[in-house]
Amino acid sequence: MQNKGLIKLFAILFGLVSLYQLSFTFLANKVEDDAKVYAENKVTDNNARQKATFEQKYLDSVANKDIIDLAVTKYSYNDVKDKEMNLGLDLKGGINAILQVSVKEVLKSLSNDSKNVAFNKALGAADEAQKNSNATYLDLFFEEFEKIAGDTKLSDPSIFGTKALSEKISFNEENKTVKVTLQEEINSSIGTAFEVLRSRIDKFGVTQPNIQRIGNSGRIQIELPGAKDIERVTKLITSKAELQFWEVYTNAEVQNFFFSANAKVAELLKDDTVLEKEKDSSKKDDIDDLLGETTDSTKVQKNLFTYLYPNVAQSQQQLSSLVAQAKVLDTATVNSLLAKKEVRALLPAELRYVKFLWDYKTITPTKPANAGDDYEATELIGLYAIKGNRNNKATIDGDVILDASQVFDQLNKPEVSMTMNASGTKQWAKMTADNVGNFVAVVLDDYVYTAPSVNQAITGGRTSISGGTMTVAEAEDIATVLKAGKLPATARIIQIEVVGPSLGQEAIDSSFLSFGLAIIFVLLWMILYYGKAGLYADIALAVNILFIFGILASFNAVLTLPGIAGIILTIGMSVDANVIIFERIKESLTSMKGLKQSVEEGFSIKGALSAIIDANITTLLTGIILYVFGTGPIKGFALTLMIGIATSLFTAVFITRILIDKSISKNANLTFNTSISKGWFQNINVEFLKKRKVAYIISGTIIIAGIVSIFSIGLKQGVDFKGGRSYIVRFDQTMNATEVASTLKDAFGTAPEVKTYGSDHQLKITTVYKIDEEGQEVDEEVQSALFTGLKSYLGDTTYENFKPGFEKQGAGVMSYMKVEPTIADDIKTSALYAVFGSLLVVFLYILLRFRKVSFSIGAVVAVFHDVLIVLGVFSITYSFMPFDMEIGQSFIAAILTVVGYSLNDTVVIFDRIREFTGTRPDWKYSEVVDKALSSTLGRTINTSLTTLLVMLAIFLFGGDSIKGFMFALIVGVAVGTYSSLFVATPIMYDTSKKEEKNK
């Protein structure tokens, strides 16, 4: 093999980079473990909410402290956290939600709530059509409007030909051009909602949040791994953006109050600052030292200015709307101190209704010139004093904004241009006239986005906001915020999945147990079967695993439970590549060729490499389809599958080759078997084609039975396919599912579906109760009804502790999922596209690779055979299996994996048939096919048995949420192995005979 040195160098460097990237995960975990210890020591009553608060307090305190020093560079906890491997919701807990911005409400708002009969009828018809259609709401509205509008046009003054839209929609304009304008306005509203949500999430404090728009559907996906306060999150992402314009006090107007408040706070904190000694004085609390908490009785005098740094104005030139600053970590403390009634009592009459609001963005102070290397820049945030009133009503509300955009002034500096409607123009003229020489604030969701000075009254309705240091990005953000004033609808949750941290940790523990057992089994089997060569394959396998995790960590990819299954599946494929190579080497050795020549042949294109590449490409194509059409955990599975295919090819072919060549150069005697495995699967000669009719009868019988079951019994569709709410609830005692279903009938009107989930202390409760009703209050009502219905089984558990989120010590909701029927239809359609898309792509690839339609037909028929049998098994057995067997997105991932695996097997066999056809022209075609099948039988059994046992380990010891997924894979791999021998190849043979007759 050429370029060994280059390959060695690449492998070593890539391995070191992978270890380097993974080290950040270990370091972050260590800090978080310390945070948990700190929280455990602080909370004695197992209050999960308090524990989470103390954990976050600890992590905030060390966020910018250096925890690793590499001499050339240092890393803080925040730096390490940014580089660690991301864990998905099913491993870390948290919330994943898809929100829908109501296009209907956008249209109604743009029409100024038109009363036009045709317009409102079209909206109602579009509502009904959307229930059974994947088209966008705007397209459906246009279709319905065209049907019933007659001569009425959308540009009619009673619909969209309004004064507010006069610059964008002309009178009597054609509907198709109006549609373009409306689409632009809708996209703008969705973009605004997206920016508002992103701003809120950035302030929520969750590490590695993910928010993205889903095409032009009006949907926004939000994932917050590690989020525990689920109630707060849902309120945060569903509340309507509230844009307001307020007058503000200057720093000079509030500074005297701050000085008085400082003295009062010092008095209030006098007793609170005496920290008691730890009860156990024998243990020095290093964590408290780190947080700056003393463990002795020394008095530390604190006051308001310990946390708040007032912006003092000593002259007219120093007047500012910024009244103070504080460390970001101290904002909660400042809020608490300023809200104390003793402090509020110090406010003079003119400041009685003052509201203190924080800036929307933080600033990092510039490092002083004389600062040393140990200087740590602390993030600060500005404080503003808003002129509130008795009714807490803003001077101007944001719904008066018509448009806003980022532009450049005459000096080419960025600024924001803003246009108001007629009502807003009058209000703005008065507000600016009253505040010449003072400041006004633009406030969104109680955060100040800008508070510029007013130089003169603005009467034209069009104005600009600028600042000496404003950047283009900041101007674009402010423009987006201003446009949020016309945000016509709240974003409602149409799909949500919540996983509690306790369930996530259990998933991690069970996953790594199954992962470890699977790896140990594979490593031992390879040594048992191939001896020293198997050991080399094991080393390559270990390098492969390192590379996979290193790549995931390097690119901040998300590792999910199905993702771990994907990694284990790629381990099986990596082993498969070595098995194919070793079996070819053994064949060459059997034909009395030398060891060196046999190794050359085994690793060549004419040997095993062609089959390996073909098999991996078919699986890679399946992975790509999965990644394109999948969401959440499915994407995680597809990503690890694709990464694993690339790394396993490299390690199985190159790393193993280097080790074997080195062994040969030392004159080692490699036999590629052991005394135990010697002679296994050798000299096999099975006449498979003579048994094909029997195989057809067996397969046909099983498929017919499955189809009958599917049409009579049906399939158990998951919530993500049919819509509904699903709760996994844990109890302190053994539960009877039938009894609980009967008990909940009164709460939900009809009995929900209740099934034991994992242990007999845990139930999965699925209901469609009020799923067609919208609103966050409906979700709360259903959850409250569930609690009421289960109250007799929950003991002392309160409703607060019952709700999902935070770690659970006793009974409560461990995870929760809601999918509305509309998006459920979309998910189902995407799944069907994924399945048929993968079949089409594979059909074309095999046709291109083997140049015969018969090969493609044989492969695709076998795949259909495998899919139908898996579906039939699920239909027949779901009612009595002790684990969840729902048909949902994870099941589709399993089906597509089965497709890939079955094709992998089939392609290896087809490759050998093609080889024998070229090298044995004197043989009958039936003999060529039988010999090819017989020669690959050892590889087929070896790989399938290894993969099945690995999957069995995951099935038995993995998490409860993955058992149905793994069961589908186990059935699929077993059936796929059978079909590659008894379906794909015989169908190919029979089809090719017909092709020959037709020539």
Automatic annotation (TrEMBL):
Subunit note: Forms a complex with SecF. Part of the essential Sec protein translocation apparatus which comprises SecA, SecYEG and auxiliary proteins SecDF. Other proteins may also be involved.
GO MF term list: protein-transporting ATPase activity
Entry membrane topology: Multi-pass membrane protein
Name of the gene this protein is made from: secDF
Domain Protein export membrane protein SecD/SecF C-terminal: 490-659, 813-993
GO BP annotations, alphabetical order: intracellular protein transmembrane transport; protein targeting; protein transport by the Sec complex
Purpose: Part of the Sec protein translocase complex. Interacts with the SecYEG preprotein conducting channel. SecDF uses the proton motive force (PMF) to complete protein translocation after the ATP-dependent function of SecA.
Organism: Polaribacter marinus
Domain SecDF P1 head subdomain residue range list: 392-489
Subcellular location: Cell membrane
Membrane-spanning ranges: 512-530, 535-555, 561-582, 603-630, 636-660, 694-715, 830-848, 855-881, 887-910, 941-959, 965-989
Name recorded for this polypeptide: Multifunctional fusion protein
Keywords: Cell membrane, Membrane, Protein transport, Translocation, Transmembrane, Transmembrane helix, Transport
GO cellular component assignments: plasma membrane
Family that this chain belongs to: Belongs to the SecD/SecF family. SecD subfamily.
Keyword Oxidoreductase: no
